[in-house]
Amino acid sequence: MPSKIEDRLAELGLSLPSSSPSRANFLPYRKSGNLLFLAGQICEWNGVPQYFGPVGEDHDLAAAKKAAEMCALNLLFNTREAAGSLDDVAAVLRLGAFVSAPSGFADGPKIADGASELFINLFGDAGRHARTAVCVSSLPANALVEVDAIIELRGR
User: Which residues form the Endoribonuclease L-PSP/chorismate mutase-like domain (predicted)?
Assistant: First the structure.
């Protein structure tokens, strides 16, 4: 049976990557009860980085938001791997967003909205979440954005 959430993703003109490999010695996710803790995902597609930091050098705010959205798509890939279906998401509880930016850059939260808006568009009120968005001097693979998440899954 097709996933309603993946159908909604397709309606938005988006799809999930075919893979989301870990870059180091860590798990892409860990479940504890109905909670799913997702490791940070950078703005890569099928393991190939697509957007590089810091913001402002090669990417404007709109492109940086797309980079954050790509991070969210990688998170969704791992959510589906862990849960079996994106329809099993009960709520997106928290996102943490990291933006590679020069000192004094104040729009990190606007960039993180690229990930937040995708979760809200897919899951409605269940996609609304608490969030931290910070700017940092560098990220793995010189990525522009990295996002992690805590998701609540439906009990079985």
Answer: 6-152
